[in-house]
Amino acid sequence: MVMLDIINLRTHFPSPDGLVKAVDAVDLQIEKRERLGLIGETGCGKTVLGMSIIRLLQPSTRVQGRIIYNGRDLLELNEKEMRLLRGKEIAMILQNPTTSLNPVLKVGDQIAEVLQLHMGLDKREAKAKAVQMLAATMIPEASKRADQYPHELSGGMKERVMIAMGLAGQPSFVIADEPTKGLDVGTKSEIVRLIRDMTTDRSMLMITHDLAAAGEICDRIAVMYAGELLEEASAKTILSDPQHPYTQGFIQSLPSRGLQPIPGSSPSLIDPPQGCRFHPRCPKAMEICKKEHPPMIKLDNGHFARCFLCA
Ligand code: SF4
Question: Which pairing describes strands 90-93 and 173-177: parallel, antiparallel, or unpaired?
Fold first, then answer.
């Protein structure tokens, strides 16, 4: 059963240099209890896609297309209806806990606020439940930590607080934005395990540049580049048999696969290259790639790739 159906989504916003086409004609589906990893380099539009779903964007942003969640188009809901969904039905684990957490509020109180708002608990019940939520994230000495301020916690503990806050309203759909960013290797593997264990009965969009983490947590992976999707398949297929040259390059850049970065840098989202957006960096580019925009081509078993070589 499809839980989230994104159809021809375009999220564009004005900037002093022109219109930024951060998400450009994206189609994506996420099934009930499916975890999908959205992979790509910094600035490819993946966070904007997540923000478009939960509708946390600047008022000047133009969002077109359809985002059908459980049969309702989120883009047609008014702000009051959206507020009722946010945190309770659809929640976001924001990236960068250091700036996302309120520095002058104890972390237990920040989780308790979500519980009061979405679970109808009174203050005392919410505080007790917040400690339980923290304990569920395996934070050491949960009741002591609940009484601390964000600056008193390590990066890994702050990430656990973000996860507890994101899941406090028991949402059916979670958007996790770069949950492993900036963590050391040991803490990262603990957070990966925690997210995997705490989201088994939910749908999730995990936005990350960390393909290895997505491979451990997600059922399916979609690869984003310059505002559009380039490849989509099961996590196993993406890691073992990627078909798009960008995905192949991305995998080669992993520390475990030789750490060979893709030459060049991500293109402008204001004026992306004509033809295939990856052609200036693609080692397999042909003449046609400079002129024509490749369509998404169906390979097999839910595997799609936007490359003329796959036709
Ligand atoms: Fe490379 Fe051409 Fe395929 Fe684009 S369409 S990824 S430039 S081969």
Answer: parallel
Q: Which domain holds residue 201?
A: 2-81+174-310
What the block records as the tokens of 90 is 């659809």
Same domain, 188 and 284: yes
CA distance 111 to 101: 10
48, exposed or middle or buried, with CB in 10 Å at 0-12, 13-18, 19+? buried
Of 274, 282, 287, best ligand 1 pocket probe by most atoms within 8 Å of the beta carbon: 282
Same domain as 164, residue 54: no
For the stretch 64-121, pLDDT in tens is 999 999 999 999 999 999 999 998 899 999 888 888 999 999 999 999 999 998 888 9
> How many Cβ atoms are within 10 Å of 81's Cβ, its own excluded?
12
User: Residue 86 carries which DSSP code?
Assistant: B
Residues 276, 255 within the same domain: yes
| Same-domain status, 70 and 200 | yes
| Per-residue pLDDT tens digits for 180-225 | 988 888 888 999 999 999 999 999 999 999 999 999 999 999 999 9
Three state DSSP letters for 41-73 = CCCCCHHHHHHHHHCCCCCCCEEEEEEEECCEE
Give, in order, the Cα–Cα distances in Å from 293 to each of 53, 267, 289.
26, 15, 7
Pair (269, 163) in one structural domain: no
User: Ligand 1: which residues within 6 Å by Cβ?
Assistant: 244-245, 276, 278-279, 282, 284-286, 289, 294, 307-309
In a domain, 109, yes or no: yes
pTM: 0.94
Report the alpha-carbon distance of residue 212 to residue 251 in Å, rounded. 9
**Which ligand 1 atom lies nearest to the CA of residue 244?**
6
Contact 98, 89 (CB under 8 A): no
